[in-house]
Write a structure and sequence with these properties.
It contains seven helices and nine strands. By secondary structure, it is an alpha/beta fold.
Length: 201
Amino acid sequence: MTRSRSGILFVLSGPSGAGKGTVCGALMQRTPELSLSISATTRAPRPGEEHGENYFFTSRSEFEEKIANNQLLEWAEVYGNYYGTPRDFVEQKLAQGQDVLLEIDIQGAMQVKHHYPTGVFLFLVPPSATELKARILGRGTESEESFRKRFGAARQELQMMREYNYVVVNDVVEAACQRIEAVIEAEHLSVKRNLDLLLDW
């Protein structure tokens, strides 16, 4: 795969039920040169979780200091705990020439876009409304009311597709990964990322 000198931040998000976690996991196995972004959180580690591998575990005061100092590309408070993407971790990896993959919800992706507009934003979608319904119901944990809320929210989230650079249909996980890999290759070959070649002429 052709590489430009610095890495590229790829942000993968999409509506609930699109299969972001599954595709992200498969993509990381297929593309070992990708570096997965690690989130910071104020919640306590769960059994088996390691600092710097699963999360950067931090205190609430330290996290709030990062917010105040603009050291996070995005953050949110969920059930009393903070979660966010450390800017320094991402920028260090990019400076080393590594591509970084950030899997995140749509709200977080829009925060990243505001702070890091040079990133590449990919919107993962299920192949159809029928398939989305099947995926949500397939979890077996949704009441009828909960299903209606989740499906309605997903339909609203689909309208955010216009804010992204690419749309990737997740019909088959392997095929979705191949499409993302094609985007990665294309971005490294884009003219705007290779203008330094003109210096050799």
